Amino acid sequence: MKIRIPRLATLYVALIPLVVLPTPAGKIGAVDLLLPFALISILTYRSRQITIPETFLAFFGFFAFLATIFNIQLGVAPPSALMIVRVLAIFLPLVAVLGQTKFDDDDLWALTKVFLVSGGLALIIGIVMHHLGIQVRDDQQRNWYGNGLGQSLRAGGLLGNTGGFGHLASVWGVVCAGVLLLRGKFRFAAAVLALALYATYISTSRAAFIHITVSLLFFLPIIFGGRRLISALVALPILGLGGFYWALGVDLSPQAIFALRRLDVLNVTGETLFFKTARFDNWANYLGYIFEHPLLGIGFKNTENMIGTPGDNSFVTIALELGVICGILYAAFWIWLALRFKRAEGARSLVGMAVVFGEIAHAMTLDTHTLWISTPAALLFIAALIRTTPQNSSHVPARSQNTEWLPPSARTPSYASRSPTAAE
After folding, report:
1. Contact of 118 with 19, CB cutoff 8 Å
2. In this predicted structure, what is the pLDDT of residue 377?
3. Sign of torsion, CA 121 127 133 136?
């Protein structure tokens, strides 16, 4: 029976946020279980030419696997470095959607509805687990207050990983809110963002906070079109600061104060923890190792073993572990995606840039290329938005006149929704 890509994509968005299975070798998820089906579908039933981002990924996969094999043979990386296969599996949902002949607004909306349910359920479960104090694993991250005030678990979701839970929250919030805005469902989009922000707050993930903040900047022109945008740019920071000062003025628990300090990028509290991280020093230290091992890197997943600290930056970590060529290809992949949506028009362009630039911001503070419970969903919806967001063109097909996919403030000629062109 022929395997249809839309069905495979639906399985991805339905299972990725929820499937976390323990095994003797570690936890596995939907990208692992669906890997053989994805390979069969892509290799056997592909019906479109290879696109530019897929070309970058193909060369990246080739050099990454080659570098990993050589590093294992040389004794630089342990055999477990073959987990690089999972990184390639994480990117397969994007390839699956880009390779399908027919993919339109109906497919995008169908996938979004499934992700709304599965991702929302995963976040709610994580929030409930956090408030009940349920610990998924012994080494789950905690907030340490000091001064005898104790500590508390950070929300880590079904995986027990606060970075992964924060990334899932930001991806789910930005993707679903973006598509809902295109359909004019402003209140529903606001509710989605509120849930995502609360999940980010209890995870105290600074990377997720940056992700959502960057993405919201692209949503503002959609929500507050025309002259209202100027008013919003003035009013929103004032309201935000007012809410922050109000929170500090009430009798909050040590947990809440600590969370606010971790997310306090403007140092409103006077004792922000936002920039108190070893990441910046680590990145500078990694550059020396990159220059020492420019061709093959130090071995996949070998940063912590060899240097003693995690990468926490996908762009730096890939160049460090897999070599400069892979680092350049990975960066080129994201640059192309950003330019692809920048060349488009209107609300769809802004939603695409919100998703892509949010992911880029997150990847600069966390190794998102290894997050198998959230990154595949982000990449799948990036591909779906590429398929339904045309580049600038003088031709506007009749189907594009359906304004259901545009909010009222965007229903102008400059925000015209257009069907995709052949070039992607």
Report:
1. no
2. 97
3. positive
Amino acid at 400: S
Distances (CA, A) of 183 to 10, 191, 353, 408: 20, 15, 17, 9
- Residue 251 binned pLDDT confidence (cut-offs 50, 70, 90): low
Neighbouring C-beta atoms of residue 87, cutoff 10 Å: 23
pLDDT at 339 over 90: yes
Least confident interval from 35-39, 134-138, 272-276: 272-276
Q: Tell me how far apart the alpha carbons of residues 377 and 362 are, in angstroms, rounded to a whole number.
A: 14
Beta strands in 77-154 (DSSP E): 142-144, 151-153
The per-residue pLDDT for 147 is 63
Q: What does pTM read for this prediction?
A: 0.87
Mean pLDDT computed over 110-118: 96
Question: pLDDT tens, 15-69?
Answer: 999 999 988 878 999 999 999 989 988 888 777 788 899 999 999 999 999 999 9
The set of residues, in sequence order, having a beta carbon less than 8 Å from that of 65 and lying 6+ positions away, is 84, 85, 88
The number of helices, as runs of H, and strands, as runs of E, in the chain is 17, 4
Helical spans, DSSP H, in 226-323: 228-249, 254-262, 279-292, 303-307, 314-322
**Amino acid of residue 144:** W
- The secondary structure element, H or E, covering residue 21 is strand 20-23
Which residue did the predictor score with more confidence, 408 or 356?
356
Q: Which of 300, 298, 291 is nearest to 64 (CA)?
A: 300
Q: What's the chain's Rg over C-alpha atoms?
A: 22
Residue 6 CA to chain centroid, in angstroms?
21
Identity of the residue numbered 421: T
List the beta bridge partners of residue 28. Answer: 21
Amino acid letter, 79:
P
Residue 250 Cα to chain centre, angstroms = 34
Residue 250 is predicted with a pLDDT of 67
Distance between CA atoms of residues 416 and 314, nearest Å: 35
Average pLDDT over residues 102-121: 95
Q: Can you give the pLDDT at residue 203? A: 92
Q: How far apart are CA 178 and CA 394, in angstroms?
A: 25
Residues 6+ apart with CB under 8 A from 100: 5, 6, 47, 48, 387
Partners of 29 in beta bridges: 20
Other beta carbons within 10 angstroms of residue 246's beta carbon come to 9
